[in-house]
Amino acid sequence: MNEHDIRKSLSDLPLQGLRFYEQTSSTNDVALAWATDGALDLSLVCAEEQTRGRGRGSRHWLTPPGVALAFSLVVRPKPEEVSSLPLFSALGALAVCEAVESLGLHPEIKWPNDVLLNQRKFCGVLADAVWLAEKADSVVLGIGVNVAPASVPPPDELNFPATCLESEAGRSLDRLSLLREILSALLYWRALFSSDLFMLTWEQRLAFRGQLVEVRGEAGEGRIGQVEGLERDGSLRLCSPGGSTFTVQFGEVHLRPVV
Ligand code: BTN
Question: Within this chain, do residues 197 and 219 fall inside the same structural domain, yes or no?
Fold first, then answer.
């Protein structure tokens, strides 16, 4: 991918700016700096390679050159979006699902926002907020997609099984079209942000629904439950083996199927 082709491919989307890098540290870090410096709503940072890509919980996110998608969108939350900031990362996951479904694949969302194919992760979403005087001035929505096999990290760097789109689709894919599809799905779902349809579609795409999973918080404490669905605020609702309902809030939570 190069800047000229990206601009051409995205020309009919209402993006307000584009910064493209052959190599950068982290598109989220670049976008955060740009947001602080006045980037408009829907400004996009895109890179062929990241040298310090970040995942959730300070994990490293690998983006080798030319085999993945790594991009970050600056979003200036509208007044009606401010109360649902934690849902922005789900917006990214939903958009990726729709784009990937158009390839004939069947993605699922591992709550809150990892995207899986055949129970293996191929996409992660990282939302960072810029706060000004206790108000969310902007949200940087970073999306990383493993496209070609060389984008899949070695097993010893993984904390959940991983895959890539080309292995799942069994053919090579055009990263530029995929980027376009994801961004246009993202704009579509942003118009429906936090609506009943948004929540229902997210819930229908949840991985492990009806299955037993273990949810483990940062402190290492684990709970087992059957995945039921989502609460209105996006937290996950489960049913314990004893039959009581409990919810898990956003935060650094690891979710694993119990086999
Ligand atoms: C995760 O699954 O832990 C989230 C991974 C998010 C990776 C993307 S790649 C583009 C953007 N830049 C980053 O440094 N991280 C996000």
Answer: no
Does ligand 1 lie within 6 Å of residue 27's CB atom? yes
51-88 confidence digits (pLDDT tens): 999 999 889 999 999 999 999 999 999 999 998 888 99
In a shared domain, residues 191 and 230:
no
SS3 13: coil
Please state the pTM of the whole predicted model.
0.95
Q: Which mutation among 29, 143, 183 tests ligand 1's pocket best, with the greatest number of atoms within 8 A of CB?
A: 143
CB-based burial, 131-149: b 16+ in 10 Å, e otherwise:
eeeeebebbbbbbbbbbbe
User: Measured from the CA of 121, which atom of ligand 1 is nearest?
Assistant: 2
Q: What is the domain extent for residue 239?
A: 212-257
Residues of the chain with pLDDT under 50: none
Question: Which residue has the CA at smallest separation from atom 7 of ligand 1?
Answer: 144
